[in-house]
Write a structure and sequence with these properties.
- The protein has nine helices and ten strands.
- It has helices at about 25-35, 45-50, 75-85, 105-115, 125-135, 160-170, 180-190, 220-225, 245-250, and strands at about 10-15, 35-40, 55-60, 90-95, 120, 145-150, 170-175, 200-205, 210-215, 235-240.
- A five-stranded parallel beta sheet has the order 3-2-4-1-5, with helices on both faces. A five-stranded mixed beta sheet has the order 6-7-10-8-9, with helices on one face.
- The chain is about 30% helix and about 20% strand.
- The longest helix has 13 residues, at about 75-85.
- Helix 3 (about 75-85) packs parallel to helix 4 (about 105-115).
- By secondary structure, it is an alpha/beta fold.
- The protein folds into two domains: about 10-125, Tetrapyrrole methylase, N-terminal domain (Cobalt-precorrin-4 Transmethylase, domain 1); about 125-250, Methyltransferase, Cobalt-precorrin-4 Transmethylase, Domain 2.
């Protein structure tokens, strides 16, 4: 897309799952070049402080489920368009990867409608980060030949047919945004006949120094996690691959239950 003299541009970039060193070389360069950085709540602030130009305007446009005071997608998009229209180089920084469970479609549509040139830089999504930092491979011979990445929250409306397919599948199931509703999730899988002894792991703040891993099974989840509250972000991995955690875990897990700084929390 051509760029006019009076129009800036937007870089849509993934900042990875938490570890500040898990960014791409390209993102490192764009951070140093950006005039304006619009960052999500769960982007590690060290990524910006260690790499951004000191003159850059940093806007903490966090979005958070269940929080009415967080930014709406329309507000974030409007900021992005506003500064790009002023001729600024705008970096829209998202946690994880740009294309996994984000509102990138809304932002891309707005950029096209306003004639603003853009670039997309991928990042490491939470599933890959959690898999690597727990030693749980998401696909492996003899355990799972496939993996499905899904979300689960009160707004998830999967049909009974989909639940039947998920329950019958031998794939590893990775659920984003599911930890707060883990009981409902496991009850649905059990209702549709997923094996009760299927192992699961809830990984809090994967790849950060505050990573914690909680193990259970579908049938024991309710009792094992009774009274527990999982910090954001948390990821749920369900499947036989979870059995590999004890053998291959390598990253130190937090014993404090602390959280890394959440922007605009």
């Amino acid at each position: 897309m051509s760029e006019s003299k009076n129009t800036g541009r937007v870089i849509l970039a993934g900042a990875g799952p938490g570890d500040a060193e898990l960014i791409t070389v390209k993102l490192h360069k764009r951070l140093a070049e950006a005039d304006v950085i619009i960052t999500d709540r769960l982007v590690n602030p060290d990524i910006i402080s260690d790499n951004a130009n000191s003159t850059a305007l940093v806007l903490f446009a966090g979005k958070q489920g269940y929080n009415e005071n967080s930014f709406t997608q329309d507000e974030v998009t409007a900021l992005m368009i506003q500064y790009a229209a002023q001729g600024k180089k705008v970096l829209r920084l998202k946690g994880g990867d740009v294309a996994f469970f984000s509102n990138v479609l809304d932002e891309l549509q707005a950029l096209i409608e306003n004639g603003i040139p853009f670039e997309i830089i991928p990042g490491i999504t939470a599933a890959s980060g959690a898999s690597a930092y727990t030693g749980i491979p998401l696909t492996v011979r003899g355990y799972a030949q496939g993996v499905q990445l899904l979300t689960f929250n009160p707004n998830s409306h999967y049909s009974p047919e989909i639940w039947k397919q998920l329950a019958a599948s031998s794939d590893t199931l990775v659920f984003y945004m599911a930890a707060k509703n883990i009981t409902d999730l496991t009850e649905l899988l059990l209702r549709y006949s997923r094996r009760p002894d299927t192992p699961l792991a809830v990984i809090e703040q994967a790849t950060t120094v505050f990573q914690q891993v909680h193990l259970s099974t579908l049938k024991n989840c309710v009792s094992d996690f009774a009274g527990m509250t999982f910090s954001s972000p948390s990821l749920v991995i369900i499947g036989d691959v979870v059995k590999l955690y004890e053998k291959f875990k390598w990253a130190k897990t937090s014993e404090t239950g602390s959280v890394f700084v959440e922007l605009n929390a």
